[in-house]
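Whether sequence alone determines local backbone shape is best considered at the level of individual chains. The sequence in question and its structure tokens are set out directly beneath this paragraph.

***
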Amino acid sequence: MSWFSFVIFSIFALAFAELSQQKLLNLKNGFNERASAVLTFGFQFILSIPLVFIFGLDDEIFSIFRTSVWQQVLFGTFIASFGMVLYLKSFKVKNISFSAILISSSAIISTFLGILFFSESVTGLKFFGIFLILAAVVVVNFKNADIEKNHIFGLFAGLIFGVAFTIDKSVMQDIQPLVYIFWSFPLISIWGLSFGYKKVTCSIKGKKFSAYKPIAISGIGYLLFNIATFSAYHAGGEVGRVDAINTTYIFIIILFEYFFLKSKSGVKRKLIATFLAFLGILSLGII
């Protein structure tokens, strides 16, 4: 499969994961954002174990120690653990779409770093495509921009993720995606637990088994998203292009809200934004 095919799959997986995670974080007496991050990454790690063996990668499990990327993995997982907490915290709002605007700032950071460190392409069409996608994200929220306190965490998460995605791209040049997930995701959980032990344990304490079902559901979505995104990097996808296209998951959410939740507000504006995003994707992946 081409990198573009992987990233198209990833936006659908991410939309599914985001919808599940929003429901989880807004549940009464649910998990706090740090516990949710620790459990979500931990669950993805558990799911990755059989997949490593199913896809015959067991002989490559320790390949990560035979390369120079181990230090990058440690640093990348360290900052990603903080980014994920901020990311999830930004969803504890009434309007997650505005959080998406701020989180999409990661595409600007990753594009710049991709050019700087990987000599990725510098073309007018590439920048035009990224601009169209970011403009679409803004347009779709133009009349729905009631700022809440937790929205600012989306901006910080976007900046951190821009760096983390660049590290992911670097690692993917030497390591298979599932092997990377096998090692990096438990590290993210460990980092999150280490710096917020009391918050995590207090949130988990006394929870019934049924409380973990949303974690499992969103975890499956996030795992599929991460496998597809890392595979796109591994197949040669530029970090800036992949990151920008991934931000269009919000339009999958909008379509879901329109057809299944019967949300009819701002239809014209949403159609214009969706068209802009579609043109942006074409500019980045096909043209």
